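My current task is to audit a protein record that another person submitted. What it holds is a sequence and that sequence's fold in token form. Thanks in advance; the entry in question is below.
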Amino acid sequence: MPSYTWTTANPEETRAVAAELARLLPRRGVVQLTGNLGAGKTTLVAGLVEALGVAPAAAVTSPTFSLIHEYGEPVRVYHIDLYRLEQEREIFTLGLEEIFESNALVLVEWGEKFGRFLPRDRMGITIEHGAGDERRITLTGDRLGGPA
């Protein structure tokens, strides 16, 4: 499985990595974002949404309480956060199946909590804390290589 890894020292560098990710990710598919609280998942999503020309980074906020944010054209992006969900039955109220089957890039934070409900062919981005503000960002997936 192909993978790419970057190390960043601050949020600005994390957003710069997101611009590189915009060239590697297909425009349709599911990406599971994994990392501890405060790892920079939403910062990465903000940079990615901006790099795709969908919305300015400042318009992107964590969907922790709303659970799903949708960003429009030219690429449809769904930003989903499953952190607050505690039971599997809560998943069924979100309409994830329709979102996963849509013509969109779907970014799922805390997807590991309910991994069996995510598509098997999903890509993954893992963000790990390093010393200070350092982050190690790893992208994995069989569908990497640019817009599809």
Observations:
- The longest strand covers residues 123-129.
